[in-house]
Amino acid sequence: MTRVFFMYIIPIVLPSILFFCWAKFIQKDAVLARTGPWFRLLIAGLGLMAIGLAITAITGGTTPGGKYNAPYLKDGEVIPGKMVPKDKSQQ
Fold first, then answer.
1. What sections of the chain are H helices per DSSP?
2. How does pLDDT run across 27-46, given as a tens digit for each residue?
3. Stated pTM of the model
4. What are the backbone dihedrals phi and psi of residue 84, each rounded to the nearest 5 degrees, phi first?
5. Exposed, middle or buried: residue 84 (CB in 10 Å: 0-12, 13-18, 19+)?
6. Are 50 and 66 in contact (CB under 8 A)?
7. Using CA atoms, how far apart are residues 27 and 67, in angstroms rounded to an integer?
8. Buried b (16+ CB within 10 A) or exposed e, 24-55
């Protein structure tokens, strides 16, 4: 759930929150209701989301063809599941 929050919700909502804070700071409440830059806010949010997804794709994961080792119990401790690269999975 935390990953969803940081990868999807924050990039879409953050530009809007920043804009509303800026508008409140400069006291343009009447203008804000009629002429807000909604298209630019939407594009900024989608752009931040795309950057977040690209960073996740580049920095995370493993090589294609790897093997998933399911979680297992060892000496009373749960060892979490993980992806193992193809060359290490055949040992």
1. 2-4, 10-25, 29-34, 38-59, 86-89
2. 755 555 556 677 777 788 88
3. 0.42
4. -115, 130
5. middle
6. no
7. 57
8. eeeeeeeebeeeeeeeebeebbeebbeeeeee
